[in-house]
């Protein structure tokens, strides 16, 4: 249950109801961050436009690299809604969701490529408090993905930090989007910001 209630269809206004209807068509139900966000109608539309723009623009990196970095960010922040929704998006994109349960063993698991490990480590470094990004790490990422790829990866990890922290603060938790995936709703383990793991 979020800390403030979702705006029901009856109070969402005609354009809000249209947006809800589209969301139900795409996802089966209205995502709670969307329905809670409807309390501030101008920010609701700003968020919608921004999400569509990021989705359209962030296409330079391989989807598996980008989505794993975003997913890892959500687990580090502890946003169970983002973990749940992200697992669903990866499944719908045809990515390997079974390996998400091995995220805490990414350094040794053979199910992750070298490029994926670099992106996940960058997500960890960017999301840590304080950040632990180094010059050498950025240089290695630039060699692997190019400058545009590095910018895209950085931006999408930052965007997921914003989403995950807002959802976590507002008490928005998983809705069961990933129920058909073989992934626990909060991932196999949830990493705290200092790098330790909690069950």
From TrEMBL:
Gene3D superfamilies from the UniProt entry: AhpD-like (1.20.1290.10)
Carboxymuconolactone decarboxylase-like domain location: 46-124
InterPro entries the record matches: AhpD-like, CMD-like
SUPFAM superfamilies: AhpD-like
Pfam families (alphabetical): CMD
Protein name: Carboxymuconolactone decarboxylase family protein
Native organism: Pseudonocardia nematodicida
